[in-house]
Amino acid sequence: MTSFIAKSLGTRLLTGQVRPVLPTVTVLYRLKHDFIAPDTEWDFSKKKYRPDRDRWEYYDKVVWPPHSQAHGEPKRGEIFYLRENVKHSHMKLWYACQFVRGKNVDEAITQLQYFARKAAVIMRECLLDAQHKAVEEQKVEYAGNMYVAEAFAYMNMNIKGVRRHGGGKYGKVMYRYSNILLRLEEGRPSADRMRHMASDDDQVRDYIQRLRDRRIEFGL
């Protein structure tokens, strides 16, 4: 009897004799600023930034209370950006991450145009997307007043394939995919937080000092 009623009701729905009554659904849009992390997440001695997808998405939703301190300074505005399944090796993306780290966003985008690597093209697209996200979603007033605080690339997945050779032989091919994580901060980078390359004179001075410090072990 139940199956007969279900079939007859389905037939009437298809023919238009019975109109389905849909429940009223109220869609609630939660703004980013409605989410506040617990106090335990604000302890910098226990929690550190890590190149992880879940943590990156979590930190992007955190709203810090007013007058928060970070590293002894007022907390700056942050933009967390994630791009997944980039068809490039994470070992090759490492060069682009090191290149843009600590640079102004506009300066990094300009210099990546002259970086003759595929990783530079990918990193430039990521920086442009992150800058657009900062303006449209985070409501950053000056898009150029940001620098790349952190840049990571780690392996996502590797797909094995084959390449056909002559003589009925085959070779293995690895299709590598990576994830790119970026963190932009407002303002200029602090001198003690970013590592800077030594000048030519300093490098020569250190090299000469290392030569002078050489000793013959077990000598007279």
SSE order in H/E notation?
Answer: HHEEEHHHEEH
Overall 3D shape: flat
Structural class: alpha+beta
- Rg, Cα atoms, Å: 27 Å
Report, as a whole number of angstroms, the end-to-end distance: 107 Å
Instruction: Catalogue the unreliable spans.
Output: 1-7, 20-35
What is the number of helices? 6
Overall mean confidence score, pLDDT: 78
Which bin fits the share of residues in helices?
25-40%
Number of strand elements: 5
Q: Could you give the order of strands across the largest sheet? A: 3-5-4
Largest sheet: 3 strands, antiparallel
Tell me the strand percentage band.
Answer: 15-25%
GO cellular component, one term: mitochondrial large ribosomal subunit
Protein name: Large ribosomal subunit protein uL22m
InterPro entries: Ribosomal_uL22, Ribosomal_uL22_bac/org-type, Ribosomal_uL22_sf
Organism: Romanomermis culicivorax (Nematode worm)
What does this structure look like?
The chain is α+β, with helices and mostly antiparallel strands. The protein is 34% helix and 22% strand. The chain has helices at 2-15, 53-61, 90-100, 105-112, 118-136, 200-212, and strands at 69-70, 73-74, 78-86, 146-164, 170-186. It has a three-stranded antiparallel beta sheet with strand order 3-5-4, with helices on both faces. A hairpin with a 2-residue loop joins strand 1 and strand 2 (73-74). Helix 4 packs antiparallel against helix 5 (118-136). It is flat and about 60 Å long.
